[in-house]
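A.,

Following up on our hallway conversation. Structure tokens first:
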């Protein structure tokens, strides 16, 4: 603490200290002669004012390969001199070097020429990245640029499968106006990167803008702030899928969702222990599809307050979350196709199922919902009297400890409505049916063999 607090006998001594350099900020100094306090705050460095920069921590070769002849220049003397612009650069760097990059580029938008180009390197080189990525688009005029409008695929695969980057904490991605697929696969497979930019500031997103942006960044431990409230189709699609070191998720403040917006967003994040709050009340098709699939350390599910559903909205949302013990309430009474299909499939620690109050079913609504939930002992009450095609298909298959089902259906004529729905449940148990129902069969497609049957 003493390095931040200083005592001086005279004001002149204090001024000599401040003007002499080497002050550690923030600093609080007291001058006895004036009996006065002086405060010198710490001002964080504004990396958005710097050219895009590589800070080398381990030497080797760095390569730039431009798409459609997109050329960059580099500087190794802090911008005093710059190389001739080129679309193919291989540069040998040493530990401690800083390499600044700039260029006036135009992203390609047609396969296979998408984006502006790609940075790569040999197996030895390691570096962090900082400064403003806009210098790769606007050259010396990058400061204050916040729009990617008309620049689809802007930074597509810019660091794809790059094992050289260790940190992007001080990288500025300042765009507030985005373009379709602008950050698509930007850091995919960067297995040594541990930190992301602090924030992705856009509040209105574009189609697939962050699609697979950090896909399989297996060392990643942080996420950027995501303040967007106006989402777009597949905007966060697979964004952190396979980030196996990620323990916490960013806040997701949007209340109105877009098609497939969170699909596979945290899939296979095997270290994730807590889900973000999901306050959305207006859903969209596939909005939460497989969102937390394979998050094997997730023990508690977030609340899901929506009462109006969308096709496939919660399908496979928590599939293979093997430590999930409790399910969220599901208050919706009007169902849509595939809405809860596979939602808790493979949740082998789930002991309590949510209530399912709907009395009118639709195709595939509960298909595979509790498939292989091997710790589940009691099924939720099933009040619907008329079943729909595939509605209970595989619903409790593999629930080897399930020994109690109450199903009030009186019309089970729909196609595959109970196909294999109780295959693999406990050898004995109690099945409660509607008193007027006499067409149940015994076996995997009906009442489990060996169970006691009683009327409701």
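Then the amino acids I'd put at each of the 456 positions:
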């Amino acid at each position: 603490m003493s390095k931040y607090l200083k005592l001086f006998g005279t004001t002149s001594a204090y001024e000599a200290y401040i003007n002499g350099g080497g002050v550690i900020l923030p600093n609080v100094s007291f001058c006895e002669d004036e009996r006065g306090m002086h405060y010198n705050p710490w001002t964080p460095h504004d990396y958005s004012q710097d050219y895009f920069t590589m800070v080398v921590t381990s030497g080797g070769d760095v390569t730039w390969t431009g798409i459609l002849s997109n050329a960059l220049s580099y500087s190794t003397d802090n911008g005093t001199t710059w190389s001739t612009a080129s679309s193919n650069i291989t540069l040998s760097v040493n530990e401690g070097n800083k390499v600044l990059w700039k260029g006036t580029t135009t992203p390609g938008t047609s396969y296979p020429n998408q984006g502006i180009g790609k940075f790569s390197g040999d197996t030895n080189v390691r570096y962090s990245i900082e400064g403003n990525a806009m210098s790769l688009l606007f050259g010396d005029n990058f400061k204050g640029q916040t729009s990617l409008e008309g620049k689809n695929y802007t930074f597509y695969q810019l660091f794809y499968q790059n094992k050289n980057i260790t940190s992007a904490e001080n990288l500025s991605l300042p765009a507030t106006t985005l373009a379709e697929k602008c950050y698509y696969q930007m850091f995919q497979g960067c297995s040594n990167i541990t930190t992301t930019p602090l924030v992705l500031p856009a509040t209105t997103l574009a189609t697939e803008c962050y699609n697979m942006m950090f896909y399989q960044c297996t060392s990643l431990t942080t996420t950027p702030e995501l303040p967007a409230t106006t989402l777009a189709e597949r905007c966060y699609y697979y964004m952190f899928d396979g980030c196996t070191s990620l323990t916490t998720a960013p806040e997701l403040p949007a209340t109105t969702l877009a098609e497939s917006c969170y699909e596979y967003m945290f899939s296979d994040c095997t270290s994730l222990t807590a889900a973000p709050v999901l306050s959305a009340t207006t859903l969209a098709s596939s909005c939460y599809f497989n969102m937390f699939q394979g998050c094997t350390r997730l023990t508690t599910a977030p609340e899901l307050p929506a009462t109006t559903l969308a096709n496939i909205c919660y399908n496979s949302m928590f599939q293979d979350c093997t430590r999930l013990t409790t399910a969220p309430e599901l208050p919706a009474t009007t169902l849509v196709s595939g809405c809860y299909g596979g939602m808790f499939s493979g949740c082998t620690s789930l002991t309590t199922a949510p209530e399912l109050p709907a009395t009118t079913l639709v195709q595939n609504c509960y298909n595979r919902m509790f498939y292989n939930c091997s710790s589940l002992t009691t099924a939720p009450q099933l009040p619907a009297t008329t079943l729909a095609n595939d509605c209970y298909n595989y619903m409790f298959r593999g629930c080897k400890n399930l020994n109690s089902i109450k199903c009030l259906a009186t019309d089970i004529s729909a196609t595959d409505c109970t196909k294999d729905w109780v295959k693999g449940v406990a050898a004995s148990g109690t099945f409660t049916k509607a008193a007027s129902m006499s067409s149940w069969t015994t076996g995997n497609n009906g009442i489990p063999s060996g169970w006691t049957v009683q009327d409701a």
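The mean pLDDT is 96. Curious whether your intuition agrees with the design.

B.
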